[in-house]
Amino acid sequence: MVFRRDKDSATWRITPDLMGVLDESGYFTQTNPAWYKTLGYRASEVETRPFMEFVHLEDVARTEKAFHDIKRGMPILKFRNRYRHRDGHYRWLSWNCVPEGDVFFCSARDITAEKEKEDALLSHEQEAALREQFIAVLGHDLRNPIAATGAAVRMAKREPQTDKARELLDMATGSLDGMSRLVNHVMDFARARLGGGIDVDITEERPLRPALEQVLDEVRLAHEEVVIEAEFDFVDPVRCDPDRVSQLFSNLLTNSVTHGLRSRPIRVAARDEGGDFVLSVGNTGEPIAPEALPKLFEPFKRSEVRESQEGLGLGLFIAHEIALRHDGEIEVQSDADWTQFTFRMPRNDA
Fold this sequence. Notes:
Elements: H1 2-7, H2 10-14, E1 18-23, E2 28-31, H3 34-39, H4 43-46, H5 60-71, E3 76-84, E4 90-100, E5 103-110, H6 112-157, H7 163-194, H8 209-222, E6 228-233, H9 242-259, E7 266-273, E8 276-283, H10 302-305, H11 314-325, E9 329-334, E10 339-346
Parallel strand pairs: 6-7
Antiparallel strand pairs: 1-2, 1-5, 3-4, 4-5, 7-8, 8-10, 9-10
Helix pairs in contact: 6-7, 7-11, 8-9, 9-11
């Protein structure tokens, strides 16, 4: 009888929590107005049907066990299940139920929004775990075989070989170098798009010039038929991540080698300009279409840029990301006579 007096109380009428009295047969004998506000049912609709009819099929077994426990005198606290709304969708409810004699006093709070946030967080955590697994596979399961194969090819090249065999070994070395670069690009892409961005280690301790010169030497060695003219005129060290800036340079230079005319030199320049460090790479060749320029630094846009430009994929995207991580930018100018990529970043010297 105490509960019947509470039925007329302000709490019973205005609380957003669902409240009710459940009997041993599984019927609610009393329900408050919150049932209608939360689930769209009038009291007559709720109290004339077994409560299990409203429970989501996937939650039935757990709910039956909870009902069995409360009938044995065990209170139910913070029990979650889904109840069907009158329009057919389901709402997550968190129940507290206390036995008293042969009836059970129940209250439930709508936690649908909270559950959706929890699910979204869990999904994000699962995606993060998959991302780390993906990067680990690239970093270990692919890099190691490539490195081992490269070592075997280098050992074979030191042995006496026919001209044909040496040519094939040189081709294998080039392919392995390309595979290694691709793995690095994909790892950087995964970090940039699926993680917090490409990592950079900004320092003033390491000079940049040797890193740029090493890139020049490697590209010249790999493409002996291409003339690369370079002029470096800047104060070293530059406050940056030399490894990442040299990677940016390598991507731009490789792109120019791929798409420039073999009969004309590629020109490289690194200089101080005002308060900026400026690195440019230019070549002659087929110009980049104006409509393609906005998509130039997007990954996997090669076919939309130009069919012949197979190299415009992850390399330029990663170069652009490295520039952004240095508070810099990459500008592109392209016409019938000349195509030039220019990386510009503030020096921020102390």
